[in-house]
Design brief:
The structure holds two protein chains of two kinds. Helices cover 16% and strands 38% of the residues of chain A. Chain A is of the alpha+beta class. In chain A, the strands form three sheets. A five-stranded mixed β-barrel of chain A has the order 4-5-6-8-7. A five-stranded mixed β-barrel of chain A has the order 9-10-11-13-12. A two-stranded parallel sheet of chain A has the order 1-2. Chain B has two domains: 211 residues; 111 residues, 3-layer Sandwich (Rieske Iron-sulfur Protein). Classes of the chains: A alpha+beta, B alpha+beta. Chains A and B meet through helix 1 and helix 4 of A and helix 1, helix 2, helix 3, helix 4 and helix 6 of B.
Chain lengths: 254, 360
């Protein structure tokens, strides 16, 4: 319905648009809806790939037996089984944004049975722990912890993240937009991980620790989480996992 | 216009307006969440909760950009005035979309922890001393609070309760909120370098909003200079010469600016001439850009009406605006710059319409 007795003057509460606006307003309305649809589509398609990390829900709950190391952050040297015929070193996380450092401290160096859900991103394997207990009777196939291999002193460029999101609990689990989430995970005890710009000793990921091999103090690295940095430290290999024992004072934003 | 303070005085224009805005939001979110993942590995590989927060966050930014473009667009082309008529509903829907974005962020990034999510939101990143890694969430929280306050006070009850100047000043904080949203996006999503197209959307949005406002302000300044320049000669009784009244179209007004910065709208209704302040009592809308409808001066923004001869809204409405005295000397019209108290009756000056003077 239009009003033809005016010169395009619109009064909202009069239930008829001026005649001269009868085509203009529908065109603007359709144009705005089309604009929003187009921007929504192109903004969504512009999202970068979050990488391959993911929970392996399809693999079901894993029951792994192996030697547990509590420091710098809990890792499990899983003995060979059906899933890992050659054994595997995994980072251990708790449910949600939690770590398992307190539970692991009581079992440090012991043979343990750990159940949980696997997370995998490339060469990085992690387990979201549901249950963890000491194995009292010797188990067939159980191995000792692998020897530590010193890889020397390195200065590496990359990003400090929480080891759970980056392993696939969140996609994407890196980057500045994810910084608060990463810090929140780290506050909860999730192990910090360094994602290197280039591969080091064949791997992109390394578990972080302080120079003495213990956990990092929060104030030593929280301001640098999720941003490009360069940091120096001693690199060592424990089983399949690289441990980067950093000197936090050498951290330099890039 | 209302004397009842109903929550919403629905009419066809508002219903159509809201349907279009909701369609804009629905189109954006559906294309983002349901269609794009079929075309993009990046979208497909992103967690659905993260896609959801991105969809609502970027949509709120685009809505806010549209909100801010309407004003200057309506200055350049009067056909955009209908978009301004119900802009408060657009603002309320924008605040709702932004709130949804924040709720999804808290429910995902700040959930699953023994620490309270709202505590986590405030304490998990405190790197306020650096640009890269700055807690950009703070800008988002601030902007969301402003949007919610503006949405909550958008009703005319608050306009009357706070008084129009205070209400207007409060609602100008939308620009501060927009700046905070841009900072929120720039320091967060854009710095993470995850989305090239959205960088373009952000830069274009900011550029369009800025250019439209600069152009509109420059146009207003030019017009004001012309209006001031048009006032020539002040006679002994301090009457300002307005010029030939025949140049004022029937049902329309001529706007003049006084030395004190006040604007006066001189309306013609047939052969009668009356002068009112140019500022509508509702939201300071430009009465002089309105026209006379059903014998009343009608504001182009929201249709508030005033009788030309006394500046009073017709019953049962109670709004009043200031009137001014006019006099005719030969074919020259004069305005007394002293404003009368709102609602003061002033007998209209009689002047023939253009072209009728010679015939009379």
């Amino acid at each position: 319905m239009t009003r033809k007795d005016d010169d395009g003057f619109f009064v909202g509460y009069i239930n008829a648009a001026p005649g001269s606006l009868s085509w203009f307003l529908p065109v603007i309305a359709i144009g705005l809806v089309a604009l929003f649809a187009a921007v929504g589509f192109f903004t969504a398609t512009g999202q970068k790939s979050a990488g391959s990390g993911a929970f392996l829900w399809g693999a079901g709950q894993q029951n792994l037996i192996g030697i547990l190391e509590a420091e710098p952050y809990p890792i499990l040297h899983a003995s060979p089984n059906e899933r890992f015929p050659n054994g595997r070193t995994l980072m251990l996380n708790g449910q949600g944004k939690r770590g398992v450092a307190n539970e692991a401290a009581k079992l440090d160096g012991q043979l343990v049975e750990v159940s949980g859900i696997l997370l995998k991103r490339g060469e990085l394997d992690a387990l979201q722990v549901g249950k963890m207990e000491a194995v009292t009777a010797p188990k067939e196939g159980a191995q000792n912890a692998p020897a530590v291999k010193d890889l020397g002193r390195w200065r590496i460029a990359g990003e400090i993240c929480d080891g759970k999101c980056v392993a696939g609990a969140m996609r994407p689990g890196t980057g500045l937009a994810h910084k608060a989430c990463a810090n929140f995970c780290l506050l909860g005890g999730v192990p910090p991980v360094f994602v290197a710009t280039d591969t080091v000793a064949g791997q992109d990921f390394m578990l972080l620790g302080n120079e003495e091999g213990g956990p990092l103090a929060d104030d030593q690295y929280f301001d640098f989480v999720a941003q490009p940095v360069e940091v120096e430290g001693q690199l060592e290999q424990r089983g399949d996992l690289l441990i980067f024992k950093i000197d936090p004072t050498t951290t330099k934003p890039l | 216009m209302s004397v009842l303070y109903e929550p919403v005085q629905w009419n066809r224009s508002k219903i159509f307006y809201d349907i279009v805005v909701l369609a804009m939001v629905a189109a954006y979110v559906l294309l983002f969440l349901k269609v794009a993942p079929n075309w993009s590995a990046g979208a497909q590989g992103t967690d659905y909760p993260i896609q959801r927060m991105r969809a609502f966050g970027t949509c709120a930014f685009l809505l806010l950009t549209v909100v801010l473009c309407i004003g200057p667009l309506a200055r350049f082309d009067r056909r955009f005035l209908p978009l301004l008529y119900n802009r408060r509903h657009l603002g309320v829907i924008t605040a709702a979309v932004a709130f949804t974005h924040a709720a999804f962020v808290i429910d995902w990034y700040f959930n699953f922890s023994p620490t309270d999510p709202y505590v986590g939101l405030l304490v998990s990143n405190t790197s306020y001393g650096q640009v890269i890694g700055f807690p950009f969430e703070a800008f988002g929280i601030f902007a969301l609070f402003v949007l919610i306050i503006l949405a909550a006070t958008s009703h005319d009850f608050w306009l009357k309760f706070l008084s129009p100047p205070t209400w207007k000043a409060l609602h100008m904080s939308i620009y501060v909120a927009y700046a905070a949203v841009v900072a929120h996006i720039a320091l967060g999503y854009l710095q993470s370098g995850d989305n090239g197209p959205f960088v373009v959307v952000t830069v274009l949005s900011v550029a369009i909003v800025t250019l439209l406002h600069v152009a509109a302000a420059s146009r207003d300044a030019r017009e004001e200079a012309q209006q001031t320049g048009a006032l020539q000669g002040i006679d002994a009784a301090d009457w300002l010469e307005i010029g030939d009244p025949a140049t004022i179209a029937d049902g329309r007004a001529k706007i003049v600016m006084l030395d004190n910065g006040e604007k006066v709208a001189i309306f013609r209704h047939g052969s009668k001439l009356s002068a009112l302040t140019n500022a509508c009592a509702h939201q300071n809308g430009p009465l002089g850009e309105g026209r006379i409808v059903d014998g009343c001066v009608t504001c182009p923004w929201h249709g508030f009406q005033y009788r030309p001869e006394d500046g009073c809204a017709p019953a049962p409405f109670t709004e009043k605006v200031a009137t001014y005295r006019l006099k005719l000397d030969g074919d020259r019209l004069y305005l007394n710059p002293a404003a009368n108290p709102p609602g003061t009756h002033v007998e209209p000056v009689m002047s023939p319409l253009e072209g009728q003077g010679e015939a009379a």
